[in-house]
Amino acid sequence: MKELSLNVLDITKNSVKAGATLIDISLVEVGSLLTLTITDNGCGMKPEVVETVMNPFYTTRTTRKVGMGVPLLMLAAEQTGGGVTIESRHKEEHPENHGTVVTATFHTDHIDFTPIGDLVSTMETLIMGSPEIDFTFTHDMNGHRVELDTRQLREVLGEVPLDSYEIIQWIGDFLREQYQPAE
Amino acid sequence: MKSLAELAAIRDKMKDKVVLREGTSDTRIVVGMATCGIAAGARPVLSAFVEGVNNAGLNSTVTVSQTGCIGICQYEPVVEVFQAGKEKVTYVKMTAEKAAKVIEEHIKGGKVVEEYTYTYATKA
Prior knowledge:
A: 6 strands
């Protein structure tokens, strides 16, 4: 992946597929340490499945027998000296409190750190693809915070769907404006 | 600064349009957005289609959506165009520039851009 924001898009799509109704995407930069956390309330995975998603020869899709999403995230993290952990609670064992948390750490001062890239496009793409799901997004950059909570937008919008072109544009501008002071 | 008040104004403007939009799309543009598609550059392709369709004022008859892996990962980004009464067209190795041409010639003009299709790519 050319940008980490593409890994974020790809990994978050797993949460969508897991039937999540709320997905939290958080990036926290403290000094040269970046921690990416994607938390969902989807169906979760059993412990034996959690082990296999780290293996490129595991996938949920039926068109072929390899799944590269998590392995690519691991590659991006590990080549900077960071890593990936996955915690998951499957709905059968945790009917009240199921979901998955994927955490990846990166050393941004490492020469093999992949640039974060266009997170705004990632958020626009996710919301367009799943307008019925709520997303919370925060990006903390050494004290400067960018944030979005689709639940707040939904309160304002009523029955107007989040994936309307004008709304997606507004969301993009809203996030880009928040990024500006830091640039 | 963008405010929620501004969002409310957009909402009020759109309320009437929402009703018009339902169930009238004759054309569906579907972009493959699995790991393979994303890694190959599908995100800007999707944005180009969404923007292009809206700028051309076609959003009441054309929908743009995302799907998973179609199974021809080496040809990603892959875009499928479904039109009522016509055979599906599969475009391969798409870019934002190619997307603009597909909107102009195929979606607006009704003429398939043959040199971008899977059929053309696999003919040689």
